[in-house]
Amino acid sequence: MLHPLNVHRVACAFSAKAQRGKPIYGRIQDSLHSSVMEYNERMTTFFITGIDTNIGKTWATGMIARYLHQQRKKVITQKLVQTGQDGVHSEDILEHRRLMGIEPLPEDLPQFSSSGSLTCPYSFAYPASPHLAARLEGRVVEPESITHATETLQKRFEFVLLEGAGGFLVPLTPHLLTADYIAQQRYPVILVTSGKLGNINHTLLTVEAIRHRNLSLACLVFNQSPPYDDTISNDSLELFRQICPNVAVLPCINLKRIPEVDFSCLLEES
């Protein structure tokens, strides 16, 4: 049974009087505008999360790394925790390298007694949230070990792209939410969403959780794989562009030809 978690309450940003008569997009833009906070080029570690599991975080992380690599930036990706993994090497990290067009790096090789690596300190077989997957193996995720691995990578690379497991509020341990771990580290957040039915609610709830922890929403990635209803998808994209100044669109996955996506917003100061 989970111990009580530090789940933050989300407060309404504006009174009903202030919102009366205002278009819905305008209200959302106003209430979430403060979530897009300033970050600068010295903050080289980005946390990539999603509105749900299987939303395209790995695809997005690899594509961002690909862009930065093509800009001659020294970039590496890291997986917070890998679950549903039987092999030694993280499947997500290997996919990042494929999208980057490079071979696995020395940092991807197992370096710890638990077979973890700098780019994936923890790997568990059962496909579940980290706290549960670890418990089923009689193990515990130690956040300090993840922090140490990230800090080591920060000393070697200009950019570290840390991909989460599941959604933003997934428990990392029985006592710590992923969101609160990221808040402790003060990493800017890149949020992956899509055009599926229900995406607006899930996206706005996640943005509210990011804003409530005073974290920077560096970019919102709109994943078009798989394709969904055009009417819903186009409307969602229009809304997201109004609430976040930095929106990148990932086209449908093409196994034969990797598309090029512009993530220059991550290189610019707010």
Summarize the structure.
This protein has 270 residues and is α/β, with parallel strands linked by helices. It has nine helices and eight strands.
The poorly predicted ranges are: 1-22, 33-41
Order of adjacent strands in the largest pleated sheet: 2-3-1-6-7-8
Number of strands: 8
**Which topology of the domain at 24-80 and 142-267 does CATH recognise?**
Rossmann fold
Q: Provide the CATH architecture of the domain at 24-80 and 142-267.
A: 3-Layer(aba) Sandwich
Summarize model confidence as the mean pLDDT.
Answer: 86
Residues in helix, %: 25-40%
Question: Tell me, what's the shape?
Answer: globular
Global structural class? alpha/beta
CATH superfamily of the domain at 24-80 and 142-267: P-loop containing nucleotide triphosphate hydrolases
> Hey, roughly how much beta strand do the residues contain?
15-25%
Number of helices: 9
Kindly provide the radius of gyration, computed on alpha-carbon positions and rounded to a whole number of angstroms: 18 Å
* Major sheet characteristics: 6 strands, parallel
Can you tell me the CATH class of the domain at 24-80 and 142-267?
Alpha Beta
**SSE succession:** HHEHEHHHEEEHEHEHE
Distance between the termini: 42 Å
